[in-house]
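All the exercises in this workshop are built on plain-text protein records. An example says more than a description, so a record of this kind follows:
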Amino acid sequence: MAVLMTILEPFSKIISYAIQNLRLTHKTLVEICNLSGRAFTKERDKLYLGRQIVFDLVQALKFKINVPDVNLLLLVGFLLQDAGGILPPCISGEMSMGESYVHINCNITDCMRQPYLNDILEFLADFHTLSKIKNLKASGTGPGLCEDTIGGVLKGAIAQYLALEMSRGNSKDSRTVSKYLPWLNNAPSSLQQGPKEFTECVGHMRLLSWLLMGSLTHTALVVRKMGIGTAAPHQAHLRNCTLIIQPVPQEASCHIADHVQVIFAGFAEQSKTSVLHMSSLFHAFTLCQLWTVYLEQVASLAAISSETYNTTLSVLFEFWAKVTPCILQLVSHSKLSESVNLHFLGLLESLKETRSTILAKLLPLWTPVLSSNTQLSGTLHVRLQNCRDAVPNLEEQDFHASEALLKWLQRLQFKMGQIELQSSTATQFYSI
């Protein structure tokens, strides 16, 4: 045993070298972690090599070391899988060598949880992340991936992992959100909002959007995994599974609405400051879309007309009751009305595409905004009417709805990534 313990440090250096210079397989990582757990008795020694793997992953995410694209995708997928996440197709392709090892617990999440969750949070929050990745990754990385898409894929997978960890923490300790998102408990003031405060608000919304993206992606992938090759799973069966991971409690809805209100209230003035501020309208409407779909998914776990279902819908209606007047105010600006109308129409089309069952219930609340769209072109009027006429097929919910949700999330993830890339590059230029 003493001999085994003496080889841990030099072997960890070999692993670190391999991560940065060789092409690894999922099977190799699993065996390293699994055999370490069986060979040693002390907890510190069991996790020694796993900690090295996690350390190199975090160093790569902080851009302190350069890891080949395939290995970076592999490490992120390895972490996500160990946390109980579902791999998106573009990452699962890199891990196909280890499919038979899927169910082995490698304790990688234990190595990541305590010291590095704040680093994971910073990776998601930093809007320069994707431009840094693009500058480092100049070659193809896998099916459908390139330097323009790998960053968004990595952020999406990391977001699902963080959503899982925060949801797990919320079930044990209600202070998890206060610990990692302390600003969510404090409503931002709409008074005396300068460029700095406006930028902070945009950053908060972006981080929330990635978290909700991670949660919803997990939901869609779980349902798809359960339903592939079979009839749509029965709703009662779905309710017994961990479908909805909730990193953000619905009680935060009012403060989320406050953040959106700050953007809508200050957009006319602050949008001229930088390209990042110009993109704030996109981020605000994106958060509104994701929060609406997120709450609808939470409500879907409860029986229709139950107290839980009605409470969640009430939270959603209250959210839109606060946000809608701000949208109406923006539409009244002649120079902004076209942009706001397009964003709002995109929101309606997103809910239609994801087969939302509450779109029809929200339309009466949005009547003032819809009736103000008198300047829309004929084509946009047709798109608007299609949204108004949309009636979801309740028999096609669950599996088919999750497929539609997943496709929408993948496209939205790409858009979020592209907007961050453009804002990052432009902001660096404007700040000189």
